[in-house]
Amino acid sequence: MSEGYRLYGTSFSLYTGKVRSYLHKKGIPFEEVHSTASVYKKFIIPRTGVRYVPVLQTPDDQVLQDTTVILDELEKRFPETSIYPRSPKQKLVSLLLETYGDEWLVIPAMHYRWDYQEVNQPFIYREFGTVVSPKLPSIVRGWLGAKLGSKFKGFVPMLGITEQTKPAIEESYYSLLADLNTHFEDHDYLLGGRPTVADFSFIGPFYAHLYRDPYPGQKMRENAPAVAAWVERMIEDKEAMQGELEDDDQIPPTLLPVLQRMANEQIPVLIDTDDRLKKWRRSNPNKPIPRTIGNHEFTVQGVTGSRMVAPYALWMFKRPIDFYRALPLDIQSEVDDLLKPLGFGDTLELGLANRLIRPNNQLQFAS
To answer: What digits encode the pLDDT tens for the residues 282-310?
Structure first.
């Protein structure tokens, strides 16, 4: 083990990009290990019990899986210039956008990666082929990558991406791009002059899928050059943490349409997920929580589709809820004045029926 950290992942992995950007921004020395099938078999699965990247190995041989767990552990070890704002409204907004970036923006990311075969797939199949062996000839990597990539493509309809919903998903994404482009024309990062946890959650889908893949990358550069410039700052600018957030706990007005989109699209899904998990628990006492528990409806741009019910998102969403509910009542009132007009309603105040924890990388009920 070297003196630095080891990041196990791939260049085309959504969540690996999140941790890689963080490590660069915080100036933490690390070595990136490309996660081939052999690495999964010999290291990732034995040490974590799951088949997901990224995985971080610390200099003291602690092995961490899940980007939220990884970033929070590193924040304890490197507390200088935290990615969590000190002021209450900015911290809450950053936590909300963390849930949105990690759990909702995967929808356009997966759509644009897998539904534009004529442009993306020769590239992405060769990328997936490197998991088998990065040293194979390009044509062989492409053939092997097609077999592996087809498994990931199979998740597309589970996310609600169907012929019925694709036009609405694209309309929503281009509207989001336009809002973010307006924002990044005046702000280097989501909450001002340096990145917060929200930026690191957004860079996951926006880099590996929506910037790096050929078709969406071209569209981003053409339609939202300020967003493309933000992506480049997130992956290249090593001085970013020296900037300042907005003064006086202010939320930039240009960020409000992004929060409103989250409230309209994702919040109803999270509320319904909580309700369905509560009912599932009554019918399945003492059973481990599966990754999905059936399907439910979601609505984007007025179009309704069906997608998997994913309990993991509730583990993420309890972070902003817990933070909100611990705030003094006068600060809660200020937050309500900001968020309720955007469509959040009483969601934060009411909280969740299910409190989830993640020991040993497995979802469990807290009590």
So the answer is: 999 989 999 999 999 999 999 999 999 99
